[in-house]
Amino acid sequence: MRLKAAGLGRSRGGLTSKVHLSADRYCRPLSFLLTPGQAADSPHFIAVLAAIKVRLRLGRPRTRPGAVAADKAYSSRANRLYLRRRGIRAVIPEKKDQAANRKKRGSRGGRPVHHDAALYKERNTAERCINRMKEWRGLAFRFDKTPESYLAGLYLRGAILWIRSLDPT
Predict the structure, then answer these.
(1) Cα distances (angstroms) measured from residue 160 to each of 42, 74, 134, 163, 164
(2) φ, ψ for residue 110 (rounded to 5)?
(3) Per-residue model confidence as pLDDT tens digits over 43-58
(4) Which of 20, 111, 147, 168 has the most CB within a 10 Å radius?
(5) C-alpha dihedral over 59, 161, 36, 144, to 10 degrees?
(6) Pairing of strands 67-69, 29-36
């Protein structure tokens, strides 16, 4: 029980944790979620998007991006429905088995998923953001044992990346 509370999970490699994050086009982190290492990616998609809050100079913080580019792991009906309800464009390709099931159902299967191939090429910004976060050795090797201190390190490193990206003028 204590492992789950600590954001740690058992796998073949031992105790692990997984950081789910969203990033903007400039490889700056927007939100974090820490889960046990064996947890799948797709169920945490909505929680990561719900945690996005970007404050501009005036007004309320922005919580809705214009588009979400993600890999095939996030291609589920629930995720697409969530994006559609919030008016966010989904740039997520369809898995082969999902396409086969849709085609098998015929006209009841719905239309094929459309995504912008040029925008999909930019989905690597999340991976590049993770690499920039892991330049900080303490995060890469997870020296912090409690989830609170590890998340604090993630937020601190994210703040450093945001500050460095600001225009000095």
Answers:
(1) 28, 28, 13, 5, 6
(2) 90, 180
(3) 899 999 999 988 777 8
(4) 20
(5) -120
(6) unpaired
- Give tens-digit pLDDT for 1-56: 344 455 666 666 667 778 889 999 889 999 999 888 777 888 899 999 999 988 77
Question: What per-residue confidence (pLDDT) applies to 121?
Answer: 82
Write down the CATH number for the domain with range 2-160: 3.30.420
Answer whether 153's CB lies under 8 Å from 144's CB: yes
Gap between the Cα atoms of 67 and 126, Å rounded: 14
Q: Are 161 and 139 in contact (CB under 8 A)?
A: no
C-alpha–C-alpha distance, residues 120 and 92, integer Å: 7
